[in-house]
Structures
1.
Amino acid sequence: MKSFDVLQEIRVDLAERGYPILIGAGILEEIGAIFHQREIAGRILVITNPTVAQWYLDPVLQSLQRAGYDAAAAQVPDGETFKSLAEADFLYDRLVEGKYDRKTVLVALGGGVIGDLTGFVAATYMRGVRFVQVPTTLLAQVDSSVGGKVAVNHRKGKNLIGAFYQPRLVLTDVTTLRTLPDAEFSSGMAEVIKHGIILDPEYYRMIGAKLPQILRRDPAALSEVVGGSCRIKAEVVRKDEKEQNLRAILNFGHTVGHALESITGYTRYKHGEAVALGMLAATKLAERSGLLADQSLEPTLRRFCQELHLPLQIPGLDSSAIAEAILLDKKADQGAVRWILPLRIGEVRIEAAVPQESVVDILKEMGGA
Ligand SMILES: NC(=O)c1ccc[n+]([C@@H]2O[C@H](COP(=O)([O-])OP(=O)(O)OC[C@H]3O[C@@H](n4cnc5c(N)ncnc54)[C@H](O)[C@@H]3O)[C@@H](O)[C@H]2O)c1
Ligand SMILES: O=C(O)C(=O)C[C@@H](O)[C@H](O)[C@H](O)COP(=O)(O)O
Ligand SMILES: [Zn+2]
């Protein structure tokens, strides 16, 4: 059996819903042969956006067609505001008009927005068709393509409409990161840093030590980061697929992060930028609550943010409005928000007893009005 240029294969071990993450260099052009090898059959609709399509749609379609697949594409506009029910509806129209049946395979070719939206459509069209993630941003390769959280946004809250629905395969070609703008690369690095803080101090130190190579997009360093993060996330998802408890730690930084995204209409911050601010806020809250045992966390996190040009302040934003938006967090239980607070690098805890006044104080400390 041909092995292509798969450098790493990581399994998301979920019994009958389990799947492989294939990480390689140049494997996008082998997608047709890989689908054959993995016994993926059926009509294929590739969902992408114009930015990604200009680089990667032709190679994907040609490879699928060369391998004998009936493959076509549908494009949605680029941007977080299009991770919406309206775009899902547009895609349902395409599927219905094209007479796509239950054996259809949707391919999400793009970043997290395309992955979450395509997965949501896959979970709901005809009560579920198969889908494959082909992530092309760092953020999608290290985080969003893995674990089966699929969703669209509501104007009041991030990912409020969604499902847990696993892909059949994740096919990650790290060479697609060559065309990714620096600010998008940094946004993805925020989730990489998150993985270190929540579970793996050695990984966190490695990121610090190899940051120059990572930022240069050295293929070996990229492979280490994409593989490292996928392994950490796959293990959490294996233990708690539907976020009954443990999986909530993957939400470190997202309580404030999602609130920042929604109150700014999903236009001011990239997801990773909002998560970076959220990790900083949660770290400050942990310190204020007397939970933070390792005083090196905040300075190292700030240094990462500076080196990656991620924001550290929230000038001009209304702290009370952010605190209000936080109440819509999906982790809330009977009205109490469950925070993910760091204790030290590699260990976080789920904590409900955080007064709203402390949240507002911290947001003001970070420059909020
Ligand atoms: N499901 C999950 O577990 C999960 C995890 C993390 C984030 N997310 C979601 O992911 C989304 C953010 O994803 P994202 O950061 O990938 O943003 P994105 O999908 O908007 O992509 C960022 C930008 O990069 C462009 N792009 C994509 N690939 C490119 C490439 N190879 N070269 C050049 N440009 C490219 C896109 O067109 C877009 O303009 C958010 O909606 C977030 O909520 C979901
Ligand atoms: O996979 C998870 O679980 C995560 O929390 C990963 C996050 O990085 C991601 O942004 C996720 O979409 C957030 O999930 P949500 O349940 O808070 O919407
Ligand atoms: Zn995230």
2.
Amino acid sequence: MFFRLCRDIFNVSASRRLTQKHRSIMEDGAQTQPLFSFGVIADIQYADIDDGYNYSQTSKRYYRSSLQLLGRARESWSEAAVKPDFVLQLGDIVDGFNKRHGASQRALDTVLREFGSSPELEVHHVWGNHEFYNFSRSSLLLSKLNTRPLSGDPAAACCSDIYAYHFSPVPGFRFVVLDAYDVSVLGREKDSEEYKRAMSLILQHNDNEDLNCPPAYGKQRFTMFNGGFSTKQLDWLQSVLTSADDKRERVTLISHLPVHPFSADAMCLAWNFDELLAVIRSHSCVVCFMAGHDHDGGYCRDEDTGVHHLTMEGVIETPPNSDAHAMVSVYKDRMVLKGSGRVEDRVFPFPQ
Ligand SMILES: Nc1ncnc2c1ncn2[C@@H]1O[C@H](COP(=O)(O)OP(=O)(O)O)[C@@H](O)[C@H]1O
């Protein structure tokens, strides 16, 4: 609640080649047209089941209509005057209930078909907790939800078992997809070292019988539905950002779990959000952090770094007569987010 209050107060193939459009805009410095643009959508959580509620029965979940909302997002991206170069899907593409109904693959195919009916649309997928309710980590790595190959560079991936990679759609700009469940009990075999380490971390902070039930104030994030970033991934991110600093690139980080306490409910943060924030703080290139998971959405601009932390509103808790997607236009000195439905319009000036 405290965090929500603070947050409200603070609420103040994509072509890797430089296209003729991008080049002429960069050369004449005109800012009327964006350098490039991209779409954003989060927490679609599609399932072919009747509407329901979240765990605390406070928010309705529209499992079937999430597909129609995705369809409208795709239409708005494909009808835009300047078409997005790519789309960021911020995780939880299908709901965990699919598993129970033996419908995981069918639901995924259905959603991907809805994304894919516009063939030129390049989608970068992030993995959320609901991906792991439906699929093992190894099967996700073999699935269409592994979009590492879109980077076009095998060296752009963190490592084989961590789903993190970076790509540069246009010179001067870079996006880093992060794996917020790299340290988690989700997606890890019960007898693996990774599972045991993650479980022991939860148990250090959470003494509830049900480990999905959040512990006391300040530790709410230590539940089984969250996770964190390993030292290996943080070291890799350091090296990606050091190189981006050297090249004076503008970097956007993408993760299912948010990392800024003023951008989301405390229950939704990555376990070691503070370590990720420390990495951001030690570099000048990061301009924005985009996440999903908290279906109410959120935003803050970090006071120290000027980095914008956006948590996108979740499609799953958006009524059928509304929408939850965005189009972001990127200029030399800022990004302009045009929200649809319950996603607010925002301008993200880049830190100097
Ligand atoms: N407060 C809670 N106490 C116990 N279990 C919970 C609680 N909140 C969520 N869960 C369980 O954790 C899992 C993930 O919750 P869910 O709300 O579906 O996640 P998401 O916000 O990612 O959609 C579900 O199995 C849900 O029943």
3.
Amino acid sequence: MSQTLLETRGLTKRYGGLLVTDQVDLDIRPGELHAIIGPNGAGKTTLINQLSGELRADSGVIRFQGGDVGTLGIAQRARRGLLRSYQITAVFEEFTVRENVMLAAHGARRHGFSFLRSLLGQPDLAVIARKVIDEVGLAAIDGTLVGELAYGQRRQLELAMALAAEPRFLLLDEPMAGMSGQESAAVVALLQRLKGRYGILLVEHDMEAVFALADRITVLVYGRVMFCGTPEEIRRHPEVKAIYLGEEE
Ligand SMILES: Nc1ncnc2c1ncn2[C@@H]1O[C@H](COP(=O)(O)OP(=O)(O)OP(=O)(O)O)[C@@H](O)[C@H]1O
């Protein structure tokens, strides 16, 4: 148990007659970057939604740091450090990048969002914000209003806000979707740096990124775990090659 940070057993979700996740067992270790791959409609997003608390599983168990979190809501899981990047907190368009990251850091400290402006004078929040803004590579535009950011910069901001909330585990659903080649390369480099510090579950269609980053990969097909292994094992697995990687080529 101590070797597992996030664990699921028999996680099952159905929509009518459709089994979207079917008895999913996962064991993700501290500091591991674990990717979930699978064809369109395999149930990857539905799985993340169940882990974040957005969706309640029909049956099965979710344990985080040894405790059952399956009945907790999104905010309660986030407070324990299990969080999905864009759900951290609201993004305020009329505030700057730095101010938004400071507010995310403040939110993590469980206060309300009243008196927003006065909070922004707090030096400890400024220190945390500077650190994570540097980390995600937004330092040059930390004074820019969020409403003026390009799409890729906004996604980087979401990551900065997630980090400001001091997570233990990050759920990332296609963090590179819609980004330019340069922006996604920056996110790959960022995740390389973050790896080992947090548990990370990554759903991503960019296979090059997945194979470069993942410690282990779970292949989901029609809601079922087909195989779990290292990138090398996945590459060599004949069925995975035929069903999934072949399709990508
Ligand atoms: N709210 C819903 N009601 C009914 N069916 C749903 C609902 N949400 C998802 N589904 C179905 O569940 C299946 C899995 O969807 P999901 O989005 O989890 O797959 P995915 O692996 O993330 O797909 P993609 O790679 O295309 O993002 C699909 O067949 C989808 O149509």
